[in-house]
Amino acid sequence: MITEKEIVYSILNSLRGGHSNNNDLLSNRLIRSWIAAERANLLLQFTDSGRSVSEENYQSLSTKTFTLVSDNIYKHTLPKIIYFNRRSGVRIRYNNEAVLMCTKSQDRNYQKDNYFSSVKRAWVIGNEMYVRIGTGNETNLNLDIDAILYHPSDEFYYNWETDVYPLQSELITVLKQTAIKNEQNIINMALNDTTNNFTSDNGTQ
Question: Are residues 64 and 122 in the same domain?
Fold first, then answer.
């Protein structure tokens, strides 16, 4: 059980230990953006071989209100979600009943085909999530969603300093090691550019 703050400071201390003059290149926000990208890559690699994602990766989102757009189709704009095989990065419930996600290839078929008009389904186009539920008599519907967000802090109730970071425990060490290795290379390149610019500005060939 570890917080995002603990991960960030562990990485930050390791990176700063390599260079005493790189403090201006590093910030909490920058490190958090790095680990968000590395987390997404790790999880995608982890599931490539057919392995299921752990419960530890999901966040329970605040209740989302979907608005009727046509017939019995409702829409809501969601933050960026990491989708895996068969869209397993999100789970949706309406009145405690599961609403299944379409696969990417099915998305537009469910939107257009009247054959599916009575089947509870959800699909994504861009950042918009659509759900087909009920008869369309209600203007708005509240849905409960668990999702693996690309940026965990996109969930209003998430506190990066105190909440457990949503990543399965066996990948935490890998995340830190990968982030440190990749970002050390970026820092080295930035420092070299700074040195070269300084040398050039001072007329040294």
Answer: yes
